[in-house]
Design goal:
The complex is a heterodimer. Chain A is an all-alpha fold. Chain A contains 14 helices and two strands. Chain A has a two-stranded antiparallel sheet with strand order 1-2. In chain A, a hairpin with a 3-residue loop joins strand 1 and strand 2. In chain A, helix 1 packs across helix 7, helix 2 runs parallel beside helix 7 and helix 9 runs antiparallel to helix 11. The two termini of chain A are 23 Å apart. By secondary structure, chain B is mainly α. Chain B has 16 helices and no strands. Chain B folds into two domains: 360 residues, no CATH class; 109 residues, no CATH class. In chain B, helix 4 packs antiparallel against helix 9, helix 8 packs parallel to helix 16 and helix 10 runs antiparallel to helix 13. The chains are: A mainly alpha, B mainly alpha. Chains A and B meet through helix 2, strand 2, helix 4, helix 9 and helix 10 of A and helix 2, helix 3, helix 4, helix 9 and helix 10 of B.
Chain lengths: 408, 493
């Protein structure tokens, strides 16, 4: 029985206008995004080759997974070097030449999935129950020996399969296209990460599909179902992640980077000025060490506060599956906040050990992005479980709501 | 004509008012706008305090250590937070881009502000209000009844548009009023007349934007047979116009108008340098040949001492040359003339190299400008991009205001340098016979000109955004014409 319901659901979806329009949208956007971001990756790769040839700089190569989830890759792939007053400065970003990049979002696969496909998932499901009720077919279906649990499970499986298949095929095609390019060298570790990214995408989209179905089970008209679905989508995808972020800033006070940089420069320059007036080297040395310690204290305080801000922001925004998915996907791709923090620590350590010494036989900066296992161990699994939990919650609620649904 | 129109407007207005979408829209607009403005006002207060601290820090430094050679390291001219910061979050400049501690959070989650509420929430609401304006009536059978009376199709369409837009704007206007009240009551926000004028223009631009999406929904509705199809088409267009085109624009333009990567630029620079170095010896050889022809044996004597070409100078015997030059004025004149000629050639070549390098930089800037322009034009296909340009440039939170600030800051810093040079000249004159101390003289800059950033006049801003506002208006006209064409032919059965 379940099989025939799934089959019926898939067939009716395949023949619908909605399926055609969603398939065209998801396939085109997925492929176009992968192609555009692949070209962007090529440019980042070229830049890396130049930056890496400069001995003084600490720089890491771009990861091919940034094609799928760019995250903080522009920040990560800057070259870091020591400048005046032991300050670590970063080179400009490749995109800084075109100011328009500042106005809009990166259209990578992560964006397509978390914003556009999540909307498509809800649109696929929003009238699966309320629409059938309006058409009168739900009454007919349940008038026979068919049980409600089987019907709702069949509807979920059939609907989600017909929604996810075109996207999955397009993403797979895109991944194959990328792996065939000579510029892209993906190792087994990268394939594992990509596999996990796609798996988490499916789970993320299932959350929105289940939510759409739940809303459909809670309403009796498809127009109401649509309004509530769009409201929920706006709330989960845009409002909670963005509001949570600015709310965290209200709770943890962090000075601006401009102020930090200016204060650090003020300390360094003041020390230099005063050193010139001091007569003996020991006194001068003490003054310089004092300035260094003041700077270190200031920087440490800033970084501690900032780490608290990031943690709080992550905890608040995780109420939304979109934020949990963003953290998980960028961490898996090696372009997330945790990776950025780890890289900065490595850069600080390397440059402070190396100092101004420019000897040619000095070891070059080497850095390995966090392995898949470690990513999962440090919060990745937590984000994954949050997504699964949302799935289970919405599926269970849908099940209960449908059992009580008035089909008349 | 007027009475039936009024009736259609009132009917449409009431129908929307009693619908669930109105309640949801009102709740969403009010909650998000008020939350946004309260949080952003708090942010603004923090940023103002941060700005004051930076200005004081620079003032303190200049008061204590204004040595001639060091004042450039602490040049005043800090960027104050934008006055529209409680409403729209400005674009960060490049000043923090080279910092290790740059905040990465806004990259992952773009901040929430009034611009977001209008572009995402209101555009979506506009489509929700209009997608079934015609199809819904057809499905319920009421459209047929209306047409069977003496009401013309133009009146119905106009009434649906006016009634629908009036009901849609209620949540927006209410949220706006509460927002304005919050701004007015906040003691940290001091807006002058021009700021209120800019807010008025921003509201007008927002209305143009929201109307364009309402009309888009109406147009799609008049071209569809059922509400479900109309809704799907509307959302498909919304995704394209709001979520896809503006974001993809810069990336497409980056492919169409390629800017050389840093690597390519470096390669070109190296190529120019290599060609420059290679061209050196042949040119010097020409000079040598010329002198050989002109001075014959005398020049051979000079060459025998290890001289001739510039790179060989160090191998030569300068003492011997000096002795010969002292003994023979003709030899001396020849050596001087030869050296002058080589120096002239060197200068000429250095100038050519500098020019080539400058041309390379100018070429990069021109290509970057062309890419940005193309991206802007490509994105202008979307009403969202047009509205973003208009709203940001009007409120001084966009790219134009960043450039305007940099210009003002540059002018101020020039004035500051002029002032410091004047003080320096006076100090030097007072200590004429004393040796210059390490780091230069201490300059008393207590009366230095203060940097007060004046916003660009709103009329200039308006002039700059009019083309994009015009495009927004054009979208309205096109969508209304589309709706009219669709509705005139619409089969109401």
């Amino acid at each position: 029985m379940l099989k025939s319901i799934i089959k019926r659901e898939i067939l009716s979806n395949l023949l619908s206008y909605r399926f055609s329009i969603m398939t065209v949208l998801s396939t085109t956007l997925t492929l176009a995004s992968i192609f555009l971001m692949y070209r962007d990756y090529g440019l980042a790769r070229e830049n890396y080759e130049v930056l890496a040839s400069e001995d003084a700089a600490a720089v890491i190569p771009p990861t091919p997974l940034s094609i799928f989830a760019k995250g903080l890759e522009e920040n990560l792939c800057r070259a870091y070097a020591l400048s005046l007053g032991e300050r670590i400065s970063a080179s400009s970003k490749q995109q800084s030449v075109n100011d328009l990049f500042k106005l809009f979002t990166v259209p990578d696969l992560l964006y397509i999935i978390k914003v556009i496909l999540s909307l498509c998932a809800m649109l696929f499901a929003f009238d699966m129950v309320s629409g059938e009720k309006e058409a009168g077919t739900l009454r007919q279906s349940l008038s026979g020996s068919l049980g409600r649990p089987i019907l709702i499970v069949g509807k979920w499986i059939g609907g989600f399969t017909s929604f996810i298949l075109p996207f999955f095929l397009a993403a797979l095609l895109g991944a194959i296209f990328v792996s065939l390019q000579p510029k892209v060298a993906m190792g087994p570790q990268d394939w594992a990460r990509l596999g996990l990214f796609l798996l988490s995408s499916v789970i993320y989209l299932a959350v929105f599909f289940s939510l759409g179905l739940l809303i459909s089970c809670l309403t009796h008209e498809s127009s109401s179902s649509l309004v509530v679905s769009l409201f929920a989508w706006t709330l989960l995808v845009f409002l909670i992640p963005n509001l949570g972020n600015i709310l965290a800033r209200q709770l943890v006070e962090v000075p601006t980077v401009q102020q930090l940089e200016l204060t650090r420069r003020h300390i360094a320059l003041s020390a230099l000025m005063e050193v010139n007036r001091l007569p003996d080297w020991p006194e001068r040395k003490t003054r310089l060490e004092q300035a260094r310690s003041e700077q270190d204290q200031l920087t440490e305080d800033y970084r501690n506060r900032f780490a608290r801000l990031v943690t709080l922001s992550q905890n608040i925004t995780r109420v939304s599956p979109t934020a949990a998915f963003t953290f998980l996907a960028t961490d898996l791709a090696g372009t997330g906040i945790a990776e950025e923090r780890r890289l900065k620590q490595a850069v600080v350590q390397y440059l402070s050990e190396r100092g101004d010494d420019q000897e040619p036989d000095r070891p070059r900066f080497s850095y390995q992005r966090t392995s898949c296992r470690v990513v999962l161990g440090r919060g990745g699994l937590g984000n994954f479980l949050i997504l699964v939990l949302f799935d289970l919650l919405f599926i269970a609620a849908t099940y209960v709501a449908f059992l009580r649904y008035d089909v008349r | 004509m007027l009475k039936p129109l009024k009736v259609v407007i009132a009917r449409e207005f009431l129908h929307n008012l009693l619908n669930l979408r109105f309640t949801v829209g009102l709740a969403l607009c009010l909650t998000v706008t008020v939350a946004c403005i309260i949080i952003l006002s708090h942010d603004y207060r923090q940023e103002l305090a941060d700005y004051s601290r930076r200005v004081n820090l620079q003032g303190e430094f200049l008061g204590k250590y204004a040595l001639t050679d060091w004042i450039n390291q602490m040049m005043p001219g800090q960027k104050p937070p934008e006055r529209f910061r409680p409403v729209i979050i400005g674009i960060p400049g490049n000043e923090t881009e080279n910092s290790l501690d740059e905040n990465p959070l806004p990259i992952l989650f773009p901040r929430l502000d009034s611009l977001f509420i209008v572009t995402i929430v209101m555009s979506l609401l506009a489509l929700l209000f209009s997608y079934d304006a015609v199809t819904g009536e057809r499905e319920r059978g009421t459209l047929r009844q209306m047409i069977s009376n003496s009401v013309s199709r133009t009146t119905i369409l106009l009434g649906k548009f006016l009634g629908g837009i009036a009901s849609l704007l209620i949540p927006f206007i209410l949220a706006l009023l509460v927002g304005v009240l919050c701004i007015n009551l906040n003691p940290n926000i001091h807006w002058d007349g021009s700021a209120w004028a800019e807010l008025g223009l921003l509201i007008a631009a927002s209305l143009t934007f929201i109307t364009s999406f309402y009309l888009l929904g109406l147009m799609v509705s008049t071209w569809s047979r059922s509400s479900s199809v109309s809704m799907l088409n509307c959302l498909f267009l919304w995704v394209l116009l709001v979520l896809v085109i503006p974001n993809v624009g810069p990336y497409i333009s980056a492919q169409l108008r390629r800017i050389p990567s840093i690597r390519a630029m470096e390669r070109q620079a190296a190529e120019i340098k290599r060609a420059w170095l290679e061209a050196g010896p042949p040119r010097e050889k020409e000079v040598v040949e010329q002198f050989r022809g002109k001075y014959g044996g005398l020049f051979s004597q000079f060459e025998a001492l290890g001289f001739g070409q510039a790179q060989e100078e160090q191998k030569g015997n300068p003492e011997k040359v000096g002795q010969l030059a002292a003994a023979d004025p003709r030899f001396k004149a020849m050596v001087e003339s030869f050296r002058d000629e080589l120096a002239r050639l060197g200068q000429e070549r250095r100038t050519a190299l500098n020019k080539a390098m400058l041309d390379l930089g100018a070429d990069l800037r021109a290509k970057a400008a062309a890419q940005t322009r193309l991206a802007k034009y490509l994105a202008a296909v979307s009403p969202l991009a047009d509205f973003v340009y208009v709203a940001r440039d009007l409120t001084g939170t966009g790219l134009r205001s960043l450039k305007y600030f940099e210009k003002s800051q540059g002018e101020y810093r020039w004035r500051f340098r002029q002032y410091a040079s004047g003080v320096e000249a006076a100090v030097e004159a007072a200590h004429k016979n004393e040796p210059r101390p390490e780091g230069g003289w201490f300059l008393d800059l207590r009366d230095h000109p203060r940097f007060v950033f004046q916003e660009e006049p709103w009329k200039d801003k308006l002039g700059a955004v009019l083309p994009y506002w015009g495009i927004l208006g054009l979208f309205n006209v096109v969508f209304f014409a589309g709706a009219f064409a669709g509705f005139v032919r619409y089969d109401v059965r």
